[in-house]
Amino acid sequence: MRAERTEGAPLPSSGAVLDQDDDALLAELRGGNLDAFGELYSRHVASARRVARRAGAVDIDDAVHEAFIKVLRAVRAGSGPTQSFVGYLYTSVRRVATRQRQVELRRLRDETLCNVSSPFESPDLSRMTSAFASLAPRHRETLQILVIDGYPPRRACEQLETASAGAVASRGLRARAALRAAYHQQLVEA
């Protein structure tokens, strides 16, 4: 009969694995001992959940499990941590949580955009479209790349043929100011 185990309790395995510190367990895992990974998991799953919660993970359990899997794959591939398992794990959890949030925000943005009616049905969107069309081509291109396509200034440098991210950011500020002015002009004319 198999003994029941509660989450966070040590695995019922050999005493040699249970008595080792994390670095020794990591060395055992590199040698192929999956019981060592089970012990590392049971020791750190609760604290990894707390890290995921603080990092704003959309699904805490998914973030924790994905981070553990990433660490296991990295170690089995010969990379990953050789010391400080916990630090490596927490970094992985935070990265997974960040990616989850980004995916969720993209999904919400896309869902919102799909629910928007035609610009010609909404006076505000129609005015915004007219204001955008009245901008100089340079401002339209900048807003297209930075706002609509969502590129950060550092990646937009190449497309805008600008030398630095700071120059792109300044160009974006000027383009936004021009769009605001054009939109206000549309409101005044209405």
Task: Write a concise keyword list for the protein shown above.
190 residues, mainly alpha, Rna Polymerase Sigma Factor, Chain: A, Arc Repressor Mutant, subunit A
Helix count, per DSSP?
9
Count the domains. 2
In percent, how helical is the residue content? Answer: over 70%
CATH hierarchy, class of the largest domain: Mainly Alpha
String of helices and strands = HHHHHHHHH
Q: Unreliable stretches, pLDDT < 50, 5 or more residues?
A: 1-14
Per DSSP E runs of 2 or more residues, the count of β-strands stands at 0
Q: Specify the structural class.
A: mainly alpha
Calculate the terminal CA-CA distance, rounded to whole Å: 79 Å
How would you describe the shape? Answer: elongated
User: What Rg, in angstroms, do the CA atoms define?
Assistant: 26 Å
Largest sheet: none
Strand composition percent: under 5%
CATH architecture of the largest domain: Orthogonal Bundle
- Mean pLDDT score: 82
* CATH-assigned homologous superfamily of the largest domain: RNA polymerase sigma factor, region 2, helix turn helix motif
CATH fold title of the largest domain: Rna Polymerase Sigma Factor, Chain: A
Report what the structure shows:
By secondary structure, the chain is mainly α. Helix 4 crosses helix 5 (about 85-115) and helix 7 packs across helix 9. The chain has two domains: about 15-115, RNA polymerase sigma factor, region 2, helix turn helix motif (Rna Polymerase Sigma Factor, Chain: A, Orthogonal Bundle), CATH 1.10.1740.10; about 120-190, Arc Repressor Mutant, subunit A. The relative contact order is 0.08. It is elongated. The chain has nine helices and no strands.
